[in-house]
């Protein structure tokens, strides 16, 4: 069998060429958009959003899918603060013997947003203004993570000869240190920094799927309840 190669001399219609080029271009764009979304979410675009025409997307469906995916994050870490607590405690026994202990211990405080409390009712879309508004749950503070290996302890007084008394003062100091770190974490500057970071993170969470779905002109504004 022979294979014949060559080109036909029959002229091609310019209109057909334009249609084919346009189809290839559209297919190429859809393939890219679908591929990127599949890389991020594991599912192709056309199973996540409703196409109502060429490049027309059901924005509400995109937002709903985004909210559901954020639920999987549960508690999102948005900001961390490392500080140092310096506290002191004193004890007296039988009005005769006294002891004191000074503690300086570093600690890390994490700030979270509980995304499991976020629902579609907290997300509104103004189609005319092309604006998405997200109301975030309140900022929360996690457990205080002390770093005792980097702590400095100074003991003084007769009671410090008793290991049990030293341990008792150590426990009292850590209770005071925890209160001190919580108070530090409540400073307005730290709270505002954590809120800004949370707003940035959540805004990106919503904007990226919208851009992938062909809605780059939709603006997202996140605020706290």
Quickly list its features.
alpha+beta; 10 strands; 5-stranded antiparallel sheet; 40% helix; 225 residues; 3-stranded mixed sheet
Summed up:
The protein is about 40% helix and about 30% strand. The chain has 4 helices and 10 strands. Strands 3, 4, 7, 8 and 9 form a 5-stranded antiparallel beta sheet that branches.
Any chance you could write out the topology, listing elements then pairs?
Blueprint (H helix, E strand, L loop, with lengths): L13 H28 L9 E3 L2 E2 L1 H13 L3 E19 L3 E18 L8 E4 L4 E6 L2 E3 L3 E2 L5 E6 L5 H23 L2 H25 L6 E6 L1
Parallel strand pairs: 6-10
Antiparallel strand pairs: 1-2, 3-4, 4-7, 4-8, 4-9, 5-6
């Amino acid at each position: 069998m022979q294979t014949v190669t060559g080109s036909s001399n029959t002229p091609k219609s310019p209109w057909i060429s334009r249609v084919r080029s346009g189809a290839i271009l559209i297919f190429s764009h859809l393939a890219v958009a679908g591929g990127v979304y599949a890389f991020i979410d594991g599912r192709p675009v056309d199973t996540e959003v409703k196409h109502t025409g060429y490049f027309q997307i059901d924005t509400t469906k995109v937002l709903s899918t985004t909210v559901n995916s954020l639920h999987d994050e549960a508690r999102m870490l948005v900001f961390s603060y490392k500080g140092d607590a310096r506290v002191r405690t004193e004890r007296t026994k039988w009005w005769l013997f006294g002891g004191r202990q000074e503690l300086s211990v570093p600690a890390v405080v994490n700030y979270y947003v509980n995304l499991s409390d976020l629902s579609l009712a907290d997300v509104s879309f103004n189609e005319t203004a092309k604006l998405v508004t997200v109301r975030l749950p309140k900022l929360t503070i996690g457990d205080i993570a002390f770093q005792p290996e980097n702590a400095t302890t100074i003991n003084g007084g007769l009671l410090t000869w008793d290991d049990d008394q030293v341990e008792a003062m150590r426990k009292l100091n850590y209770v005071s240190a925890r209160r001190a770190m919580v108070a530090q974490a409540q400073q307005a500057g730290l709270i505002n920094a954590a809120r800004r970071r949370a707003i940035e993170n959540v805004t990106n969470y919503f904007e990226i799927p919208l851009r992938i779905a062909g809605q780059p002109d939709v603006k997202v504004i996140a605020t706290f309840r």
